[in-house]
Each structure stands twice: as C-alpha cells, then as structure tokens.
Amino acid sequence: MSARISKQQSVLKKLLTLNSNMGSFTKTRMVLLIAVLLLPPVFVVSVHAYENPGAPVGFANDLSGTLSSMDRQALETKLSGYAASSGNEVVVAIIPSLGGDTIENFANQLFKDWGIGKEKKDNGVLLFVAKEDREMRIEVGYGLEGDLTDIQSEHIITDTIAPYFKQSDFVGGVNAGVDAIIATLSGGVVPPVPSSNNPPTSPAQDGSFSLIPFFLLFGIVWLTSILGRSKSWWAGGIIGAVLGFVILFFEGTTIGIIAITVLSIVGLIFDFVVSSAYQKHGASGGTPPWWAGGGGFGGGRSSGGGFGGGRSGGGGASGRW
After folding, report:
1. What are the φ and ψ backbone dihedral angles of 228, each rounded to 5 degrees?
2. Across 223-236, average pLDDT
3. Most exposed: 25, 50, 61, 90, by fewest CB within 10 Å?
4. Burial status of residue 25 (CB atoms within 10 A of its CB: 0-12, 13-18, 19 or more)
5. Which residues sit opposite 175 in a β-bridge?
6. DSSP conformational letter for 192
7. What angle, rounded to 10 degrees, do the helices at 170-185 and 69-86 form?
C-alpha cells in the first residue's frame, strides 16, 4: 500500500515539474511573440524616416526630372520676381517619392530644413509634390496662415492643380498652383480651371487683371536675366527700338520717332547697367541681385537652409490626384 502511494506521489511530482516547465516555455514564447510583433513597426520607422533631399537650388526645385530646364527657369524667374516684389517666399519642390513617410511630415520637415520665408516673419509657402506617390501638399508658414488658409489651400489643390495632374500636365499644374497661391496671397481672385462645363471667362470677369502687375514684373526679371548674362549691351537698345516701332504703329510718326529714340537710349543704358552688375558679381564669386540677372538668392539668406529661416506650424492642406 505504501509502495503504491509512493508511486502516485512520484507521478504527481513529475506532472508538477512538467507543468512548471511548460509554463516557463509558454512565458518565453509569449515574450518572443510580442517582440516579433513590435519589431517590424520600429524597423519600418527607422527605414522610412524623413531624409533631407539636399539644399535648394532656387525657388523651383525639381528632383524628379519632371520639368525641362526651360520650364524650371521660367518658374524660377516667376517665383524670384514675386519674392523680390512682395518679400514672401513661395517655393516649389518636386520629389520622386516620400520613401514611406507621410507627406505632412516630409513637407513640414523640408520647410524647416530649408527655412522658407524670412526669419521672425515666417512668410513662406511650399508647394510640395511627391510624383510617384501621387500626393501633393501646400505647406504654409506661420506668418501667412491668415492670408492663405487651410481651406484656400485645399481648394487650390483640388480645383486648380489636381485637374492638370490627372491629365499628366505637371508643368501646367505647378504653374497654375503657383499663380493661384500668389493671387490668394495678393488678395486676388483665383481663376477657375477651364472645362467643357465651365468655359473660360474674360479677364474682367475672373479678376485676373489683378495678376497683370506680377506678370509685368516677371517679364522684367526674365528680361534682366537674359540681358545681364550677355557680354554686349546693344541688345537692350534693340529691344527699346522695337517697342518704339510698336508705339509708332499705333500712335503715329511724331510720337513714334520720339518713342524709338528715347526707348533705344533707355534700353542701352539699362542693358549696360545690368550687364556690368552681373559681370562684377560674377568676377567676385558672388551672386548677382535679381535685377542684374541673378537667381533671386541675394543677400539676407541664412547659410543653413538656403532661405531666410522661416518656420511652419503645419498649416496648409494635402491632396491626391
């Protein structure tokens, strides 16, 4: 009888030992399982964290090869001209992909790294496009949040830019978006995108006359960028003479001859001044001012980010196409 009890006690002891070992194994297995479940998100975050694409090359930055050199230069001239006339800095950045990051985080970090806008004024705007992800965002600096609200930014993305992007017209979409941003900041009316159901309206109806001063300024900046880079300065005189002949055609001989003479002289002097300034700054290794054919990256910029040190608090809007 005692032998039988002893045997039962021995079996019970083995069962308790086995149960204890299984409990230890189960706990270990649960810890490993939790670790495996937690590791992938950490790994993904570390791999897809924001990476600065590098310093800006100007106001128009295309890292995806979307814009031709001519399109990029025309956009650069438009943006640098607006910065010179208003003090606000509107910057375009087109990248291939977000690399798994969110467009809100990427745009905000890029805005911060580049320091778009003037320090303490925070008057910068970033039009940011991730082409392969088919996402875009308008990031607005603190100082312009009242002039370009989140709702207005959303309307520009949805109603102005997206229709172009859906047709793979990225040049048209970016330019339309920039024009809409500038018009909004200037208190003008954003022109609607023409469609079969929404025929184009006249300038007087859609308020686009408010953009005429900016287009004139952009034309002047574009002209100085060409004349400033030329080694001779007679081209300005020729342009002045051509304008004089146009006036001659509309106003008659007397006024036309006076216009040809005056505008030719003014053109020669203007070309001489901008060409001399451009060559002087080029010889010293500096960047010419915008009125002498420079790219708009004149004085007053910080060396860290490329622009004036502006900040953004995440204002703006995002969208897809």
Report:
1. -65, -35
2. 60
3. 25
4. exposed
5. none
6. P
7. 0
Give the CB-side neighbour count of residue 98, counting CA atoms within 13 A. 19
Strands, sheet with 60-62, edge to edge from the N-terminal-most edge strand: 60-62, 89-95, 124-130, 135-140, 315-320
Amino acid at 258: I
How are beta strands 124-130 and 135-140 bridged, if at all? antiparallel
Q: Decide which of 315 and 313 is more confident.
A: 315
**DSSP calls for 261-321:** HHHHHHHHHHHHHHHHHHHHHHHTT-PPPGGGT--S--SS--TTTSSSB----SEEEEEE-
In a 10 Å sphere around its CB, with 0-12 CB exposed, 13-18 middle and 19+ buried, how is residue 269 labelled?
middle
Name the 3-class secondary structure at 63: coil
Question: Do 143 and 115 contact (CB within 8 A), yes or no?
Answer: no
pLDDT in tens, 17-39: 545 554 544 544 444 444 444 44
Rounded to 10 degrees, what is the CA torsion of 190, 193, 197, 203? 60
Tens digit of each residue's pLDDT (9 = 90 or more) over 113-143: 999 999 888 999 999 999 999 999 999 999 9
Q: Structural domain boundaries of the chain?
A: 1-38, 60-191, 213-283
Choose the CATH number for 60-191 among 3.40.1190.20, 3.30.160.20, 1.20.1730.10, 3.10.310.50. 3.10.310.50
Instruction: State CA 158 to chain mean position distance.
Output: 17
pLDDT at 89 over 90: yes
Across the chain, where does the E strand assignment appear?
60-62, 89-95, 124-130, 135-140, 315-320
CA distances from 271 to 233, 259, 260 (A): 5, 18, 16
